[in-house]
Amino acid sequence: MSLRRSCPLLGVVDTDTLQVEWEGQPRPVRLMDVDPELARPGGAKQPTEFGRRALRWAKEVVFKDAAEVVVEFPGEEVAYSNSGKLLGYVFVGGENANARLVREGWSPCFNKYGNPRIHRAEMEQAEQWARYEGRGVWGGRGGRGDYHALKAYWSLR
After folding, report:
1. pLDDT reading at 116 higher than 70
2. Tens digits of per-residue pLDDT, 49-99?
3. What is the DSSP string of 41-79?
4. 75-109 burial, b for 16+ CB within 10 Å, e for fewer?
5. 138 vs 82, which has greater pLDDT?
6. Which of 43, 56, 126, 154 is most buried as measured by Cβ atoms within 10 A of its Cβ?
7. Cα–Cα distance between 74 and 68 in angstroms, integer?
8. CB neighbours of 156 closer than 8 A, spacing ≥ 6?
9. DSSP summary character for residue 38
10. d(CA 45, CA 34)
């Protein structure tokens, strides 16, 4: 069973992070099971032009008119990222935004916080379609190198 909560959307911070109103306070939400290139500095990874395009796409397509999102956590309790952000899947108009990011080729499916406990098949299928169609990172358009090799390396860690 998973925990789901509807929250006002305050903004799209980066390709992997949203700002929502959580229990009356603004809180960042880290999208689970994705690792897109970033648009803004501030972490271990450098921002890329591909990350900036992904952020524009997210703002203009996925979250364009969204005033509210549903955050779903992988278990029955609120989950947190290593940096203290809320960690979950985000739904906009009933659509899994995490899976859409992967399906459109802006991110690989990435199990940074452990193997996906929910939506695993949807996330993996989204990546398989993006790979098959050569979308985004799978078509060599990302700025971090060969994602086929990166994915193999990540799976061995």
Report:
1. no
2. 999 999 999 999 999 999 999 999 988 899 998 889 999 999 999 999 999
3. SSSSSPP-HHHHHHHHHIIIIISTT-SEEEEEESSSS--
4. eeeebebeeebbbbbbbbeeebbbbbbbbbbbbbb
5. 138
6. 126
7. 20
8. none
9. P
10. 14
